[in-house]
Fold this protein.
Amino acid sequence: MLEGILLGLQTALSVQNLLLVVAGCLIGTLIGMLPGLGPMSIIAIMIPVAINIGDPAAALILLAGVYYGAIFGGSTSSILINAPGVAGTVATSFDGYPMARQGKAGKALTIAAISSFAGGTVGAILLMGFAPALSSFALLFHSAEYFALMVVGLSAIAAFAGTGKVAKALMMTVIGLVLATVGESALFNAPRFTMGLLDLQSGFSFVTLAMALFALPEALYLVLDPKRGSTGGASTAIKELRVTREELRKIAPVVGRQSIQGFLIGVMPGAGATIASFLGYAVERNIAKGADQEEFGKGSIKGLAAPETANNAACTGSFVPLLTLGIPGSGTTAILLGALIALNVNPGPRLMIDNPSVFWAVIISMYIGNIVLLVLNLPLIPYIARLLTVPRNYLIPFILFFTMIGAYIGQNNATELLLLVGLGVCATILRFADFPLPPLLIGFILGGMMENNFARAVNLTDGVAFMYERPMTLTLLVIGLLLIFLPAYRRRRARDLQKGVAPGD
Amino acid sequence: MALDKWIAVVFIVISVVYGYSAFTYPLLPFELNMSFLPNTMPMVLSVLGILFALIIILTPKPKADPEGEALGDISVSRLHEYKVGQALALIGAMILYALALRPIGFIGATTLFLVGTGWILGERKLHIMIPVALVGTGLIWFLVEQALGIFLRPLPWFLS
């Protein structure tokens, strides 16, 4: 492991990569602060840039920096103007915004930054322990297990989609898998479902799809509902960034607990930063006693530290399935996976063996990214926050333009832009009807791999017998099925309990 | 019927059409003896698609999700409050931009797009908007062309 760390340090500490971390964090913070633009949109916009860098380690370092920066920027706008740019920072606004209203915006930002730093750092340390262990285990996996593992990943994402949304999430996953079959077929590479269009022969572009699913609907929402992006004219005067030692001592246990809990939640596919932050907030509120508990929701520093720590630790945790199994656990890591594939890196258990510099450089750059956020972004926040005053008449045209140019320079093809607008409109309608979109993108990205692994397994065993003959495959498939039925069962239980039926009746 | 059920109906139609083309997929002669075919997964997917869409149509509407409310999520019930006209105009502008990008060239098309969309959104101070758009366009063009090394034709067809 020491060898790996040194290799990672060597790669991550090169001047170019250091600059990329700094740039990524800054860009992420700047854009993440804008209301309505989450990390997924920002990373989608940055992908063409990252792909053009050419070096996978550098590209992933840049994108990871953007990811952290975006989460940090999202917390900033939650605290200052109560407009969380990301679902993962909604819980931050519960206590952060009241603190800002009390004139303690600077202190709130510092606490948020320190908690994020601690969460991210502890997460990175845990990642360093977890990932190699998991990936050496994953080396035992065969194509049959890979297929089963992807089924588990996809069903876990659907299972965590939220109450009453499981069928919708599954539907979206299927649509994603369907979109992935357009282009060339598995194993034979003959054109398939292209409707005779040459433009479709290489399939849908992943960047276009990511932009259409995340960046474009958000931009259209900002247009539709001006209140969504309104800065509310809140005072953005930030002074007094310092925190006392007493306050640090108060939040230390919270940070300790939440960084571990957040990380573990982040590791599970489908449960990302959002669930971690809400759960972290709830747990800390229940643990707190007396006056401390009363203060939650009214500007408690513990209530601010909990979700901030948890969401950053979860972000780091979500890299575990990505780096070790090659299965993304969230929309954001799905986009990162797409970028890696575009850069000719195959994430999975062999990543550590084939591209150790990528693997370790990413982990090391996580530490560096966290330090950059703490020492560089925090003092700059009062200036960066001025961005919140950019009028939407200027903001929205530029967001739309960046979305389009991102899709265009990836393919250098104007048809791609029409496809982007069409898919974007569809995605907006789907969001209106409450269909979760991340499963679609994850299905799209996993579709090709899943089909190839399935095909390989079928060809090796000449039939689908591998599904029940290989114990590991069978176990994984059963877990996948259970995950789908679990939410329905729990809802039924909840209904029964409401009616007064005891469990077991 | 709620919007999501209508969408599910559309999904059924898509799945049926997709399934039809999957089941009637023209296989090559040598493929007929293989255990895994290019249309194996599509056939499974079309069946699953129809199944899930039916589940969506048949399940009753669940209660509102408090988490979504917290984000101030968008909902169809407030559609009349939204600026639908502006959004449609912007979508139109994006399509025009897609069609105009090649013939007019990057700088002209982008500047026009930025000023036009700003105008649609209600910006009337053209003496600020046009310089901002020009500087922004120039900067992006420079970055893409010089830093990333991707060619974007800057000028209209008759000039380059």
